[in-house]
Every structure is written in structure tokens, then in C-alpha cells.
Amino acid sequence: MKDVPGSGSYSGRYWHFLDDGRMQCDLCPRHCRLHGEQRGACFVRQRVGDRMVLTAYGRSSGFCIDPIEKKPLNHFYPGSAVLSFGTAGCNLACKFCQNWDISKSREMETLADAAMPEAIAASAAAHGCKSVAFTYNDPVIFAEYAMDVADACHQLGIRTVAVTAGYMGAEARRDFYARMDAANVDLKGFSDAFYVAFTGAHLQPVLETLQYLKHETDVWLEITTLLIPGKNDSDDEIRAEARWIARELGPDVPLHFTAFHPDYKMRDVPPTPCSTLARARKHALAEGLHYVYTGNVHDTAGATTHCPACRAQLIVRDWHAIESYRLTPTGTCPDCFAQIAGRFGNFERQFGRRRIPVRIGE
Ligand code: SF4
């Protein structure tokens, strides 16, 4: 059968046959083993005869222009606009999913916006976006589509951003991140027990992705941990996570602690108090990390970038808006000339705290 993007019959890669005739998907560590016309746990990858089909290729759940701070990325062209989109499905099963209407969608009809890679890249350029983000649901499961979009973006000088849980097989990871300029990886907790109980996944493959990104690629990396009261917010767990990041990835990888709101299968857990985010930030700074942020709350102190050398305030933020910006175009502190980790350029004006839906082709 011929591949027809957007038709639900696009051939997926990263799989092999087992001796018993089942097809094993190698795209992520779940390693779904498929009979007949079975779909994988992510729902969008399906065995059809002797093919693996990516049913979501060329189909999106919608496009929005966001500030890059919303991904969240605080050290990747601050203030710039990013064209964001996702598809449907997910390879994790987080009980606390904050985007579950998209990630748990079994309704392929919700993928209303047919969009080919070249059209997405052209739309990003036409709207003045510096980058395109694969987000809302995990791009791992639509990797072939995301990689084709990334190639089209790079043809036009548009950068690419993955917002992901980092749960990916080694071969696909190499291909995928060769096409990404930045990533925000969700490190959902710092114990395997938490991963197993609340996400249906395991911690170690995520740590391997983080190490791969930091040590074997030029991808700009930031990490986010959603703190859930009573589940992954103990002092010991937060300190252990920050210590691991400082030791294994280095102190310059930004870490965002963000606030949970009751959702999906965890509506009985209260929202994260601001005091928990502030406590986590204090612990992570004490463990030696240079850039630790709080998110999903109004907390100017927790959203500000300081110079790690002289402690000057360099980028002051409120939620996703920048209130003052003092970095030089090359990303140095104007007071002591220390280099700030990240990707920076001329800062002229910011996109601001807006969210603009767009239709591709319009
Ligand atoms: S990408 Fe989907 S089909 Fe493949 S192993 Fe992961 S959950 Fe299963």
C-alpha cells in the first residue's frame, strides 16, 4: 500500500518481527508486541498486515502561537514566538495528565487540522515564529511526522523544539534529536516507584535520554518536574533529583518546578501550593544548580534568571511575560561578563503572554 500522509496509512519505522509472528515496536521502551490489526498503547501506531502504520501522520489537534517561556524554555531565545502543535495519544499513562483531552484521545476525528510539513514550516515563518514546538502530546509517538516537519523547518531557518517525557528507544532517539534544536524533558519524579505507580513507565530510560541529550548532542536542554502534593514532592526526592542533575548533567541545565492542578484521574489531590515550589527551588539551588524556576504560578522571584557569578537579575519574568531583560546579544551578564548557558540573540520585543490559535494554510 502506498503511503498517503494524512490518510492514516503512513508507514512507521522502528519495529521488528518476533519469532512468534508478532510485531514489536521499538520506538519506545514499552515495546508493544502486536498481533493482527492491534494498536499500540499509544493508540496512534497500528499494525496493519505486515506494516506499522502511524495513523496520526499529517494530522494535528490544532496549532497555536505561544511564547517560548510556555514550553517552558527560559534559556532558548527568550521572548520569542513558537508555533506549537500536537496530535493525539501518548506512550505514557500519567494519572495526573494535565492535557488528557489530547493525550488520551481515541477520537481520530479530533485531529481536524490536516497539515503537511512544508505548510507548517511556511506558516511558522509567515507568523514570525523563531521555532516550531512538538508539544501538547508526546512527539515520541509521532516521531516520523515530527522529523519531517523539523526538516522542512530547518530549510526555512526555523528552529525545532521537543516537549517530551523522554521515553524513547535508542535508535529512534538518535534520529529524532539529530533534528531538534531544543528539548524540555519532563522528569516526572525521581523514583521508579513513582513512575510505575503514576505514569505506567520507568525512570531509568528517561535518565538515559537526559544523559544522551546532554553529552551526545548539541540540543539545548531544560527539565521540568510537575510537583504533586504528597506524591513526588518530598525534600529527599527533590534533593536527590537536583543532586543527580548537577552531577550527571552539570549545574547549567535549567530545572523548572511547576504546579499541578487536579485533573484526569487525580482530581482528589489538591493543587500544588506556592510554598512547595519555593521549597523545591531552594533545595535545588542548595544542591548547586544555577538556574531553577517555578512555573504555573505568579512568582517573580522564582521566574527570574540570575547571573550565577554575580547574582545580578538578568531576566525578570512574571508567568510567561518578560518584565526586564539585561543579557547581551551573546548571552553574557552586562555587569560581570559571565556567560549565561543557553541560546540567545538580539532581544528587541517579546511575544508576551498571549496564545493565538492559527489554521495552517490560512
Ligand atoms: S510508541 Fe506506541 S506502539 Fe510503540 S512501543 Fe511505544 S506505546 Fe507501544
UniProtKB/TrEMBL annotation:
Annotated binding of [4Fe-4S] cluster, by residue: C90, C94, C97
Catalytic class of the enzyme: oxidoreductase
Cofactor list: [4Fe-4S] cluster
Keywords: 4Fe-4S, Carbohydrate metabolism, Glucose metabolism, Iron, Iron-sulfur, Lyase, Metal-binding, Oxidoreductase, Pyruvate, S-adenosyl-L-methionine
Domain Radical SAM core: 75-296
Cofactor note: Binds 1 [4Fe-4S] cluster. The cluster is coordinated with 3 cysteines and an exchangeable S-adenosyl-L-methionine.
Signal sequence coordinates: none
Pfam family, one: Radical_SAM
EC identifiers of the protein: 1.97.1.4
Single GO molecular function: [formate-C-acetyltransferase]-activating enzyme activity
GO terms of biological process kind: glucose metabolic process
Xref: PANTHER family: PYRUVATE FORMATE-LYASE 1-ACTIVATING ENZYME (PTHR30352:SF5), PYRUVATE FORMATE-LYASE-ACTIVATING ENZYME (PTHR30352)
The protein, known as: AmmeMemoRadiSam system radical SAM enzyme
Species, as recorded: Cupriavidus necator (strain ATCC 17699 / DSM 428 / KCTC 22496 / NCIMB 10442 / H16 / Stanier 337) (Ralstonia eutropha)
